[in-house]
Amino acid sequence: MPARKIIIDTDPGQDDAVAILLALASPEDLEVLGITAVAGNVPLPLTEKNARIICELAGKPETRVFAGCDAPLARKLVTAEHVHGKTGLDGPQLAAPTMALQPKHAVDFIVETLLTEPAGTVTLCPLGPLTNIAAALQKAPEIAGRIQEIVLMGGAYFEVGNITPAAEFNIYVDPEAADIVFRCGAPITVMPLDVTHKALTTRPRIEAFRAMGTEPGRMVAEWTDFFERFDMEKYGSQGAPLHDPCVIAYLIEPGLFSGRKINVMIETKGEYTLGMTVADWWRVSGRPANAMFMGDVDADGFYRLLTERIARL
Questions:
Q1: Mind telling me the catalytic residues?
Q2: I need a surface site. Which of 29, 115, 163, 309 has the fewest CB within 10 A?
Q3: Is the pLDDT of residue 234 over 80?
Q4: Interval 180-200 mean pLDDT
């Protein structure tokens, strides 16, 4: 079977970095057509820089990186330096990238790729706020019917919010964009906090990365050392969730995840619930299903895959 063509849309972020490394380490499964950066965890100048740093860490400087939207569609940018540090990749010291940023805007790259590749052969993998994807859908609505699948990290149902009591960060940063994406009609698979909070780091899992004796392995271990402290203190858990690699792991080994096809809508006006993912898990709304909403993950299998693949780099 040929490798699945993907575009990774991202706001790195330590967990975004691990997701990108997993994708770049898996060429037999995934052909990364490009990486598009969006403002989210940190502002755009840092997310596009971080994406290039990660490609060079993976030994893949030929990967094309495009800068996209520097602010949400209709709101001021909310960032997450309190989790990821001021660079977005705090923890180990990293050299500035030498590979060039592509001159084309990320939204143009997404649109042109979907219009030139055969219909139904390109999967979009958003790991951050959905601004770039929504802007592409606004610019060229006809691309919706050409998307193979949108597999995104965002939202929550049982785990509710991690940035407000009701909202998950990626959706909260740009709820209008998320609303556009969930209404677009393309096949959507969601990796919400309900899944990612079951894929926790543990000391043995982190040490398995460090034991690789490679620069990517060391970086993954040091990144998780850095950001797991925040989540362990916040949730009282034994480790931190690796959110974004769930998207890439699903594309490689979908059997690791289980969920159900349901209706998902985004709250864009609520006084207390802005950015809430209204996931009709119990199918009580009568609204037609528009997304596969994952609810569980084989965490041991997930970390086995991560460790196997990142050890290749």
A1: 243
A2: 115
A3: no
A4: 97
Q: Which residue has the higher pLDDT, 245 or 237?
A: 245
State mean pLDDT over 190-198.
Answer: 97
How many domains does the chain divide into? 1
Token pair in block for residue 71: 């602010």
- Domain, as residue range, for 158: 4-310
Print the SS3 string covering the chain. Answer: CCCEEEEEEECCCHHHHHHHHHHHCCCCCEEEEEEEECCCCCCHHHHHHHHHHHHHHCCCCCCCEEECCCCCCCCCCCCCHHHHCCCCCCCCCCCCCCCCCECCCHHHHHHHHHHHCCCCCEEEEECCCCHHHHHHHHHCHHHHHHEEEEEEECCCCCCCCCCCCCECHHHHHCHHHHHHHHCCCCCEEEECHHHHCCCECCHHHHHHHHCCCCHHHHHHHHHHHHHHHHHHHHHCCCCCECCCHHHHHHHHCHHHEEEEEECEEECCCCCCCCCEEEECCCCCCCCCCCEEEEEEECHHHHHHHHHHHHCCC
Confidence at residue 233, expressed as pLDDT on a 0 to 100 scale: 66
Task: Give the model confidence (pLDDT) of 208-218 as tens digits.
Answer: 999 999 999 99
CATH code for position 140: 3.90.245.10
* pTM of the predicted protein model: 0.97
